[in-house]
Design goal:
The protein is an alpha+beta fold. It has 2 domains: about 280 residues, no CATH class; about 150 residues, Topoisomerase I, Chain A, domain 4 (Orthogonal Bundle), CATH 1.10.132. Helix content is about 35%, strand content about 15%. The strands form 7 sheets. Strands 3, 4, 9 and 10 form a 4-stranded antiparallel beta sheet that branches. Strand 17 and strand 18 form a beta hairpin. Helix 10 packs antiparallel against helix 11 and helix 10 packs parallel to helix 12. The longest helix is centred in the last third of the chain and has 30 residues. The radius of gyration is 27 Å and the shape is globular. The N and C termini lie far apart (about 80 Å). About 40% of the residues are buried.
């Protein structure tokens, strides 16, 4: 029998949204039907955003409304909300599946394996679902709570985190489950990281939650037999090795077997979850649908030909530093290709179905795993304003935003080269690339708000003189920041840097002499800055072009 307190459709507030009166958690039906009244999702952590979109919001709409073609997609974006007929379809869809959206159901609890149990009755604290919270033998000394007495979570939060574990969990050894024939010595090995852990996730954000849902809905016909997890047979304790039948199956993939263990409560008391049972889940095998929430790297293999790999985000880089991959609507010479969702958006701008000044943002997130993918080392996330016009190869804004991002990176490298030459001028050797703090990284953090301001301004689709003025304004501030970074390096130099030193080396079989002096390092630096900032120093750029 269904428990009203476990009904995620109407009773439990668990979808975190930003309403007109501030952040709140609402049931699923309200989150969908009133999505046009909410500004955005406000997840617990950036990696929760794609979880809520993929595991619940987008699959429900796709399954309820049927195949989404470009015409229906454009109608939805133009309307800005679901029509009365579409609202009715979504409501009827949810009504028909109320038992499967019950987190406390005895036979098929939402996102869980009913009756999942460890042979010895072992349970994990609910924090085992939360990668940012210490658990097990990793409890910090200043944490007042012991593992034996974890902090309970409201049911809605516990459901969010169990879906998060389905998508992002580590590949660590999982404990045994009663009824799983593949358990060995009380454990399951060979577990893989959650399906999103393999990707550099790229999600699109609109001006409302409704638009965000539509922007993240892939167009095209559904694969035969494709259906979400709540329309499949209830999960059993034993896991499967199988191929996703389509995008709905992939989006709602159950990468772990989990059962929430609520605290005992009196009638009418809110449900609290303190413990969970966590074991191995389904593993993806064979060819699968192309995931629309990632960019791609294309490499040529002698035996396989052209091979595509999900392009993962790198630690320490801002989202705009990968803008060239985001804008690679067609496969480019660098071997990048952008996500299917951005290709859809680009097509909509070409057909006029999406205004060229639409205020689009791109949310990027990913996880860095360590020690054989058994722990989470870092969580990566960013939110980048993306001019829609930049998705068009024939638009001036595209070249402008790529140029500005490249200029920022070039200035950072120029400062690093200055630091290396100054270090050599006083008899030292610069730290190897990637080792220690580089001064260029500090400059990038100073340039970051300038780049974002430029990208935000370009979302208004400027052209001609306005775009040139924006470039000059960016380059003026960027030059000022680069010169300040250089001045900081020069201020710390000892007097010996002025006279410098001469080094003789063997390079490519020849004896080569290098003289490192402060004056030379400064001259090379200022020359490189002028070459980079072509709108601010057009004479230098023209001279370089003539020389070339």
């Amino acid at each position: 029998m269904s428990d009203p307190q476990g009904c995620l459709v109407d009773q439990v507030g668990w979808i975190p949204v930003m309403g007109g009166d501030g952040p709140k958690e609402v049931p699923l039906r309200e989150a969908l039907l009133d999505s046009h009244t909410f500004a955005e999702l406000v997840p617990d952590t950036p990696t929760m955003l794609p979880v809520l979109l993929r595991q619940v919001l987008v699959p429900v709409v796709l399954d309820a409304l049927g195949d989404i073609d470009d015409e229906l997609w454009a109608e939805l974006m133009e309307a800005g909300e679901f029509t009365a007929e579409q609202r009715l379809k979504i409501s009827e869809y949810l009504d028909a599946r109320l038992p499967r959206f019950d987190a406390l159901d005895a036979t098929a609890p939402f996102g869980q394996a009913a009756g999942l149990e460890h042979p010895g009755g072992k349970v994990h604290p609910v924090s085992a679902l939360m990668p940012h919270v210490a658990s097990g033998n990793n409890t910090p000394l200043w944490d007042a709570r012991l593992v034996s007495d974890p902090m309970p979570l409201p049911l809605g939060a516990a459901v969010r985190w169990l879906l998060h574990a389905q998508c992002w969990d580590t590949a660590a050894i999982k404990t045994a489950a009663v009824g799983d024939p593949q358990v060995r010595v009380g454990k399951t090995t060979g577990n893989r990281i959650g399906p999103l852990g393999r990707l550099g996730v790229v999600a699109l954000l609109g001006t409302t939650l409704f638009e965000t849902i539509v922007l993240n809905m892939p167009q095209g016909a559904r694969a035969a037999g494709d259906r979400p997890q709540w329309d499949r047979a209830p999960m059993k304790p034993s896991w499967e090795l199988r191929t996703p039948t389509g995008l709905l199956d992939l989006f709602t993939w159950q990468g772990r077997r989990i059962r929430l263990v609520p605290d005992e409560r009196e009638a009418g008391e809110p449900v609290r979850v303190r413990w969970v049972v966590l074991s191995a889940g389904d593993r993806i095998d064979g060819p699968q649908p192309e995931d629309p929430h990632t960019c791609w790297t294309i490499k040529q293999d002698k035996s396989k030909g052209s091979v595509r790999y999900p392009r993962r985000h790198l630690p320490g880089l801002m989202g705009w530093q990968g803008l060239d991959a985001l804008l690679a609507i067609e496969r480019d010479t660098a071997g990048y290709e952008t996500s299917k969702l951005l290709v859809q958006t680009a097509t909509a701008t070409l057909t006029g179905d999406l205004a060229s000044d639409y205020l689009l943002r791109v949310a990027t997130c990913g996880m860095v795993y360590g020690t054989q993918d058994s722990i989470v080392s870092d969580i990566l996330s960013d939110d980048v304003p993306l001019p829609v016009a930049a998705l068009r190869a024939d638009h001036a804004v595209r070249g402008s935003v790529i140029l500005v991002c490249e200029q920022a990176r070039t200035l950072a490298r120029t400062v690093d080269h200055l630091a290396a030459n100054l270090m050599r001028s006083v008899g030292g050797e610069p730290a190897p690339r990637g080792k220690g703090q580089q001064p260029g990284s500090k400059l990038l953090h100073v340039l970051d708000p300038l780049v974002r301001r430029f990208l935000t301004g370009c979302r208004r689709n400027p052209s001609g003189d306005e775009l040139d003025q924006a470039h000059k304004a960016f380059e003026t501030l960027a030059e000022r920041a680069a010169l300040a970074a250089a001045e900081e390096l020069l201020h710390r130099l000892p007097g010996t840097a002025f006279s410098g030193r001469t080094v003789t080396k063997r390079e490519q079989g020849k004896t080569v002499t290098h003289t490192y002096q402060q004056a030379n390092a400064e001259r090379f630096f200022h020359s490189a800055v002028r070459k980079t900032l072509i709108h601010l120093h057009p004479q230098t750029a023209a001279a370089e072009e003539t020389t070339a």
